[in-house]
Design brief:
heterodimer, A: alpha/beta, 6-stranded mixed beta sheet, globular, B: mainly alpha, 66% helix
Chain lengths: 248, 740
């Protein structure tokens, strides 16, 4: 069976007006297995977001291939997007829609059957505890409330793969913990989750496998145990530093 | 393309738009009330102004030996005017006042105008003196002239040549910058002309000429067009302008928010990660903009008709519109493609802009461009059975004019519709591509540059700077007298606009002045190339002039007049060299091959860079016939800058070219009359100079590659070594430059 996410030699170079060519991602390889949480761990500017944007077809790869459920991101972007949900701090909601309308709109636009949509929306409203403010406009909600609506809209069409780009950035401790609980719950439902973070403890706690990315290259990837064995360090922070020292 | 998905998106877009209360009130409801109010207000203002002027008593003075006769003439004119004044209006009232120095009184506002009179003998001796001095430039039409004292140097009324000996002269001095002065003097001249006509008729009658001289031939003009046709001709010309204006205002409401607004809010990225295709997103947004444009246009048009029907706004009573239902359908069938093209164009602008504010910036030129195209219907003699049928919007404008007078050219109407739909489709495809252009999807790039400010922002602002400079150069001379003279214009353009403007850009954007002005040494061979380019650019430029004259033919006299104004014979050579060769060579090069090139060199590939910088240089030489030749010179200069990487060869070439052209003119060498073989000889010299520049090039640092690189060309491609650093770093030659 094909892995839900398969990445080979994926490369992204773009030209910046003031900086010239920028090699954001350089020939990276990895794959995500069904029902696992795969973490991309790296510092700011390491290439995490660019990688995820290529996988979600927002950006086009310069070279290499990436497949989502067997569909090539460059060749069949619509089929790819049908099968995934993307959550990031930069993917904002529509301020003039209510929470219910938001979930309904994204379920329908992603091809969820019209007849089943109301029941699906009710289910998500209940699961994420949105009921009290389901009819309130997004621009009137607090950031914690918006976060829940954003996750609900990400999973509205029930995709098999979920991509979370730094989902806890900007959240307070309680909301960050709630986000982690949601990710664990989604994994329990059988979803394949690819998520990026620069917070070591979060990766350590949630991920089945981790890829350490630095300056656009994947330095190492595997389970936490295998990374520990390879570097001889116990804490993920030390593992991370050790991998970077190896290449510098 | 999924129709259900598009329907869903359109409903979503409309819902979002209608929930934006501020947009609905300011852009939809308010114009419905404000537009008729403006028209109503303008009508009242006009009437009020007319009443005010009717009630004004104009104060004037009469000077000179012929004053008494003129007073008598005025008296007869006043009586005649009283008989002929329209019902409901008062005849103009005039009051003669004493004025020792009428010119001073006119300046002080104590007089509205004054008349200077000369007897026939006085005028004869004055003419004689003037003929000797050959300075006469005063126009008198049959003895009565008007001169604007507000700007005597530019007074354009005057010719004394037609005067017969012994005929007295009356000159009316007024100030065009004062309403009472302009209107009063105009009314008095009309009155004098009428009185003079009456005098002439009386004189002829006394001498036995039985027929009124005005009636020596019975002349009449009969309009055989029906009132409907006349009205159709009138409405056919203004209807497209009216509808395009309304559609533009309506469509821009939805267009600005549609893509640029979503980019700014971050919701576009969310939408792009859904399973909707980019073309579906664009199609839905286009339909939304179109719906809003159609709704606002129809609402505004209906609103105006209601106000017309209620009589709040008056139209000429002679206009009777009679359009058959069939014609209405054809007009509608033509209007819809116009609305589609306009909404697609505005969508493209919104997709191209990264922010709401940027969209607003681009809308003005788009508005102007579309209104110019729509004005094609006003051009006399342009028929739909011509190439205009292929020019979007302009074709519909001409078609509407023809339909309104009952002329239906069905094949050409079909061509018009096809051209419009093709244009709309192309615009939609372009918009869709914009959503695939990564630098346009997110606002990250702009935000970083905004935060960084200074040099990082300069490439995004450089065109705005030049638009501002161009606007000042165009507007200033018509408002400042000193700038109408050659020296004033030269000093202003060179030192205030180009020199101070360049320094200001360097200061505001905190640019490294050496880099910004391309202060770099060049190889000695480059100087040889430039010396060869001086004559060969001018001579090859003659071919460009010939070519441009095919498209934009200008009368020979006009070109000669321009040359004599630009190169006055009484100026010494050193002065002309300073003004037209040395300073433009240095100062204009600082601006164009310095800052403009520096600002654009990482935004455009080399060929586009040469074309754009050259064209902008041409546009600064405002006279229409100069734009193409100077754009050619600009392109050659930019090529030199791109290949040599330095401003110095450009300065030499620019100054040398101007000096060479002037010397040929001053010493009567007419290059246009040279044998073609001699001119053709310049082509190999020109090409050899460019070859030399290329052969010994030290390219402008940090240029983009000549063409877009394929991934296979990329340094990161497997099998190729990594290139540390990138072009444009200090002290490092440009990769792209090496490719050049």
């Amino acid at each position: 069976m094909t892995d839900p996410v398969y990445v080979k030699d994926l490369t992204k170079t773009y030209y910046d007006e003031s900086r010239g060519p920028v090699h954001a991602v350089r020939q990276i390889d990895f794959d995500c297995r069904p029902g696992e949480i795969f973490g991309l761990l790296g510092a700011n500017g390491a290439g995490k977001t660019t990688t995820l944007r290529m996988l979600t077809t927002i950006l086009k790869p310069t070279a290499g291939t990436a497949e989502i459920m067997g569909y090539d991101v460059a060749e069949e972007p619509v089929e790819v997007r049908r099968r995934l949900g993307f959550y990031s701090a930069t993917t904002a909601l529509y301020p003039r829609l209510s929470a219910r309308e938001t979930i309904e709109f994204f379920a329908r636009i992603n091809g969820y059957p019209a007849s089943g949509t109301p029941a699906r929306v009710d289910e998500l409203i209940e699961r994420f505890g949105i009921g009290d403010y389901a009819r309130t406009r997004i621009d009137k909600l607090s950031s914690g409330m918006k976060q829940k609506v954003a996750i609900a809209r990400t999973v509205a069409h029930d995709p098999p793969i979920l991509v979370f780009d730094e989902p806890t950035v900007g959240l307070d401790v309680l909301n960050a913990l709630e986000m982690q609980a949601i990710l664990t719950e989604l994994k329990a439902q059988g979803k394949t989750i690819l998520f990026s973070t620069h917070i070591m403890s979060e990766a350590e706690k949630l991920c089945d496998r981790i890829a350490i990315i630095h300056e656009g290259r994947i330095l190492a990837h595997g389970t936490l145990e295998s990374l520990r064995e390879r570097t001889g360090a116990h804490y993920l922070e030390d593992v991370f530093v050790s991998c970077i020292k190896e290449v510098s | 393309m999924n129709r259900a998905t598009i329907g869903l998106l359109v409903r979503h877009e409309l819902r979002m738009l209608l929930r934006d209360r501020r947009t609905v009130v300011l852009s939809i409801l308010l114009p419905l009330v404000v537009l008729p109010l403006i028209l109503l207000g303008a009508k009242f203002m006009n009437e009020w102004r007319r009443e005010q002027l009717d009630a004004t008593t104009y104060r004037y003075a009469v000077t000179g030996a012929y004053a008494d006769s003129v007073r008598a003439l005025i008296g007869r004119g006043v009586l005649l005017a009283a008989e002929e004044t329209e019902e409901g209006r008062q005849p103009a009232s005039f009051l003669e006042v004493e004025a020792v120095r009428p010119d001073t009184s006119l300046s002080a506002g104590d007089l509205d105008f004054y008349l200077e009179t000369l007897t026939g003998a006085e005028a004869d001796s004055l003419d004689l003196a003037r003929a000797e001095a050959d300075t006469s430039d005063v126009a008198v039409e049959g003895g009565v002239a008007e001169t604007d004292r507000a700007d005597e140097e530019r007074a354009d009324v005057t010719v004394a040549d037609a005067r017969y000996p012994g005929v007295p002269v009356v000159t009316v001095y007024f100030r065009a910058n004062r309403d009472e002065s302009r209107t009063g003097s105009g009314r008095l001249v009309d009155l004098l002309v009428d009185a003079r006509k009456q005098d002439r008729a009386d004189a002829l009658r006394i001498r036995g000429f039985a027929v009124d001289p005005e009636e020596s031939i019975k002349l009449s003009r009969v309009d055989v067009a029906t009132p409907e046709q006349a009205a159709g001709f009138y409405f056919g010309r203004i209807l497209p302008l009216f509808l395009v204006f309304l559609t533009l205002t309506g469509a821009s409401v939805a267009a600005m928010d549609s893509v640029a607004g979503e980019k700014e809010r971050g919701s576009l990225e969310t939408l792009l990660t859904t399973s909707v295709s980019r073309f579906e997103i664009i199609a839905a947004k286009q339909l939304t903009i179109l719906s809003v444009a159609l709704f606002i246009t129809l609402a505004q048009a209906g609103n105006l008709f209601v106000y017309l029907a209620l009589g709040f706004i008056e139209f000429s009573g002679e206009l009777e519109i009679d359009v058959s239902p069939g014609a209405v359908l054809v007009l509608l069938a033509l209007y819809v493609p116009v609305a589609v093209v306009i909404s697609s164009l505005l969508l493209l602008v919104s997709a191209y802009a990264k922010t709401y504010r940027e969209t607003q910036l681009y809308l003005l030129p788009v508005f102007l461009g579309l209104m110019i195209l729509t004005a094609a219907g006003l051009l006399p003699g342009v028929s739909l059975r011509s190439l205009i049928a292929l020019v979007p919007v302009a074709n519909v404008s001409v078609a509407v004019r023809e339909i309104m007078v009952g002329h239906y050219d069905i094949p050409m109407l079909l061509v018009t519709c096809a051209a419009m739909l093709a244009a709309a489709f192309m615009l939609l495809r372009l918009s869709s591509r914009m959503l695939a252009m990564e630098r346009l999807i997110t606002t990250q790039d702009t935000d970083e540059a905004d935060l960084e400010g200074g040099a990082a922002l300069f490439p995004k602002r450089v065109l705005l700077w030049f638009v501002g400079m161009w606007a000042i150069i165009v507007i200033a001379p018509s408002n400042v007298d000193a700038l109408t003279r050659l020296e004033g214009q030269w000093a202003f353009n060179m030192f205030v606009i180009f020199f101070a403007g360049s320094l200001l850009m360097i200061r505001v954007h905190r640019l490294d002045w050496r880099k910004a002005l391309a202060i770099r040494p060049v190889r000695p061979q480059i100087w040889l190339a430039v010396l060869l380019l001086v004559p060969s650019t001018l001579m090859t430029g003659m071919f460009v002039v010939e070519l441009s004259s095919v498209f934009l033919p200008f009368p020979e006299e006009m070109l000669e007049k321009f040359a004599s104004q630009l190169l006055p014979d009484d100026f010494p050579v050193w002065k002309i060299m300073l003004m037209l060769a040395l300073t433009p060579g240095v100062v204009e090069e600082m601006a164009f091959r310095g800052l403009l090139l520096h600002g654009l060199h990482r935004r455009l590939r080399p060929l586009a860079l040469i074309l754009v910088v050259g064209l902008i240089f041409g546009l600064f030489h405002q006279a229409l016939f100069r734009i193409i030749p100077t754009a050619y010179l600009g392109m050659v200069l930019t090529t030199v800058a791109v290949l040599s990487g330095s401003i110095f060869p450009c300065i030499l070439l620019h100054a040398g070219n101007n000096a060479f052209a002037f010397l040929l003119y001053r010493y009567g060498v007419d290059i246009e009359n040279w044998p073609p073989e001699l001119l053709l000889l310049s082509v190999p010299v020109f090409l050899f100079s460019i070859y030399l520049l290329y052969r010994y090039r030290t390219p402008y640092p940090g240029l983009l590659p000549f063409r877009k690189r394929s991934p296979a060309d990329h340094p990161d491609h497997p099998g190729q070594p990594d290139h540390p650093g990138h072009p444009g770093q200090p002290g490092q030659p440009s990769q792209s430059g090496e490719r050049l």
